[in-house]
Amino acid sequence: MSAFDLKSLDECLEKHLPAAELKEVKRILYGVEEDLTLELPAAATATAEQHGFEIKGYRFKAQKEQLRKSRLVRVGAIQNSIALPTDAPIEQQREGIWQKVKAMIKAAAEAGCNIVCTQEAWTMPFAFCTREKFPWCEFAEEAETGATTKMLSELAQAYNMVIIHSILERDAAHGDTIWNTAVVISNNGRFMGKHRKNHIPRVGDFNESTYYLEGNTGHPVFETEFGKLAINICYGRHHPQNWMMFGVNGAEIVFNPSATIGRLSEPLWSIEARNAAIANSYFTVPINRVGTEQFPNEYTSGDGRPAHKDFGPFYGSTYVAAPDGSRTPSLSRCNDGLLVTELDLNLCRQVKDFWGFRQTQRLPLYAESLQKATQPDFKPQVIREQ
Amino acid sequence: MSAFDLKSLDECLEKHLPAAELKEVKRILYGVEEDLTLELPAAATATAEQHGFEIKGYRFKAQKEQLRKSRLVRVGAIQNSIALPTDAPIEQQREGIWQKVKAMIKAAAEAGCNIVCTQEAWTMPFAFCTREKFPWCEFAEEAETGATTKMLSELAQAYNMVIIHSILERDAAHGDTIWNTAVVISNNGRFMGKHRKNHIPRVGDFNESTYYLEGNTGHPVFETEFGKLAINICYGRHHPQNWMMFGVNGAEIVFNPSATIGRLSEPLWSIEARNAAIANSYFTVPINRVGTEQFPNEYTSGDGRPAHKDFGPFYGSTYVAAPDGSRTPSLSRCNDGLLVTELDLNLCRQVKDFWGFRQTQRLPLYAESLQKATQPDFKPQVIREQ
User: Which of B217, B239, B385 is the best mutation test for A, with the most CBs of A within 10 A?
Assistant: First the structure.
């Protein structure tokens, strides 16, 4: 069995485990004690069928409170492959992906989504493996005024939906610099702001550090009509302190648009965003692309293998984790898909009251410890035998 | 099926999944591509059989380097139930647990372990649910000179083994205060130092905050003959920043002696210590007790249920996670057990070089962010629609 014969971990467990064991396994693995399935409107499933992408719906409930109403929001997470070969003209490549994803945003609207988020660098192949600046930097757009932000602003307004999209950014006003950036568009179709990827990988084929630097936008939380949102872009999910600062700034949902491949990171995928949801009492939405991308010129991977032209497969497996440690099943490992999840944002504060992780965080201790740890003459706290 | 019919998640998967699927599921769930089984000496398995506890062995390998020799160490992790009813005389209760655990330490020595760690508050029932100070505070001992430290010091010297044990501490020199403390004894049988639990729960039956306060010992790393060790006690595993500081101080193995129960934390158990291993490029060893403990007087759980006398079941499931994100299977959810794991400590730096998480950590950013976040006039970084 090759890695991609297994289309879905969840379907494999459901197929083989007897019902009673499956229930226990799901409780232990996923923190799920009841069926999370959310029935989706026929229009949404019809759109998914027509365009050939997977659609799944789940819901997380919270307790009823006396003084606060339920704050139900529906979140759409989109994973997809690119549309055209990577040597097609840039505009056609982008247009091909736009068409794919527009259908998925339409289905999200039909499914009642209030917020949608794309995968990382969604308008382009993840070409940073090549270290070629041309033509890939041509995919970069102004976050505020670029063609993709404009196109999505219309959809956001039409569908009354917050849209978060993750692109390669060109900042003309600051020396034509390139950034890895997420843009937040309000449900009125207005540009709300942007966040730049805080942690940049230097691993495997992720040669991103040769294209852009560490983000300079801090840890912004976007207060939208549908909750307080933040974006932790891709490799930033490996850094608990990055997740923590979005929590400190009040996030209720943190999206993690990503592009990551099999053996490199798949065993980490189900751990990190879920740990962040637990540690920070918020929802997390890790999103990964699918498919294998072929590039015009061969490149090497720094792992002893011969030069090659393919990058991937990206293993998809988009899911949502809740602050109580439970999580949805994943989208497939290989197909385009839309994950629709209904959240009651009240769960965040309820879990804070229950577990008390924020209350017991001792931030002053860590502010002081990190302050010391970053001094040039820092001496680690090491105890040796006397 | 009740929660405890499923004795082991791993055995359940192994029983029901076809071989090819099982291999893929283990790769995705556990990051394991080859069999980790470590063959154990007959003497160790005989001792385990004689005393009726589970024993399992696993190994994590690292790449061979040219300039550093492999640094193989064997770690023993002990999970156990108490030995006598909780209304037996204190000394007999303690002696009963000592006898149990001494046999397990003997088996650890026979299995070639260099380091052994107990579960949290190992000499006593986890009686803090009751909020009764008497007689439970009588279990507290001086970390440096208490009877249990003395007893273990002899074993440490006899077996040439570092022993870490987690106890209720009585600090007579500082006002007879009570702490939740881990003690490190060198393989020469000498007291090396202690660490006090940094984060204290206020959740469910974990009424520990009525017994002791947040630890005042920082994040010490113990430089032993068998590697740099640290201890993150129980509830501290929910706090990524706690794990991080042990990493900043250079830990290669961080033990997590715990006492935690089913529905409360089991879905978090497999996530948090493993996430810490990944984020900090070190090994983690989460250890949990087993069994249900009955107390003389009834108490309430703050969850609407009637008063009762039982606490638990503690679900065991002790495991080891490696810096590359892989992990061992768990010990059982209900039996006493010794988990023997051979580690090559060289893997820590190899993973740092590969993934670069430490390199890309941006600690100065977080030192500054936390400094600001802990000021009384802190304003979170929130962006609203203009």
Answer: B385
Structure tokens at B384: 């609203």
DSSP 8-state code for residue A307? P
Distances (CA, A) of B309 to B88, B92, B296, B300, B312: 15, 21, 7, 8, 10
What gap in Å lies between CA B58 and CA B113, rounded to an integer?
12
Give the DSSP H or E segment for B171: strand B162-171
Backbone conformation region of residue A234, classed left if phi is above 0, alpha if psi is from -120 to 50, else beta: left
Q: How far apart are CA A167 and CA A243, in angstroms?
A: 20
CA of residue A303 relative to chain centroid, distance: 27
Q: At what angle do helices B363-373 and A363-373 cross, to 10 degrees?
A: 140
Q: Which of B355, B372, B379 to mutate to test the interface with A (most CBs of A within 10 A)?
A: B355
Q: How many CA atoms, within 13 angstroms, populate the side-chain half-sphere of residue A349?
A: 13
Amino acid at position A83, single letter: A
In this complex, is the C-beta atom of A28 within 8 Å of any C-beta atom belonging to chain B? yes
| Residues A326-348: tens digit of each pLDDT | 999 999 999 999 999 999 999 99
Closest CA to A128 of A236, A212, A194, A235: A212
In sequence order, the 6+-apart residues with CB closer than 8 A to the CB of B243 are A240, B232, B236, B237, B254, B276, B279, B280, B284
Structure token pair of residue B237: 């595993």
pLDDT exceeds cutoff 80 at B216: yes
What is the number of other CB atoms lying within 10 angstroms of the CB of residue B49? 11
pLDDT tens figures, B248-261: 999 999 999 999 99
Distance CA A85, CA A274 (A): 34
Domain ranges in chain B are 36-372
Coil, helix or strand at residue A33: coil
Whether the predicted pLDDT of A69 surpasses 80? yes
Cβ distance B238 to A277 under 8 Å? Answer: no
Looking only at the bridges linking them, the beta strands covering B227-231 and A382-384 are unpaired
- Please tell me which of the candidates A272, A356, A373 has its beta carbon nearest to residue B203: A356
Strand partners for A81: none
Both tokens assigned to A262: 């099999």
- Total number of residues shown for chain A: 386
List of residues 6+ apart from A59 with CB closer than 8 A: A36, A37, A38, A341, A342, A343
How far is it, in rounded angstroms, from Cα B369 to Cα A219? 9
CATH topology of domain B36-372: Nitrilase/N-carbamoyl-D-aminoacid amidohydrolase (3.60.110)
The answer to whether residue A128 scores a pLDDT higher than 70 is yes
Per-residue model confidence (pLDDT) at position B2:
54
- Quote the strand ranges of chain A, DSSP E: 54-59, 72-79, 115-117, 162-171, 177-185, 191-196, 221-224, 227-231, 253-258, 283-288, 290-299, 308-315, 337-344, 382-384
Q: Do A222 and B248 touch (CB under 8 A)?
A: no
Does the pLDDT value for residue B263 go beyond 90? no
The CATH homologous superfamily of the domain defined by A30-373: Carbon-nitrogen hydrolase (3.60.110.10)
Q: How many Å apart are CA B98 and CA B159, to the nearest integer?
A: 16
List the B54-59 sheet strands across, edge first.
B54-59, B337-344, B72-79, B115-117, B162-171, B177-185, B191-196
CA distance B145 to chain A (A): 16
Tell me how far the alpha carbon of residue B201 is from its chain's centroid: 16
Determine the distance from the C-alpha atom of residue A19 to the mean position of all C-alpha atoms in its chain, rounded to a whole number: 32
ipTM: 0.95
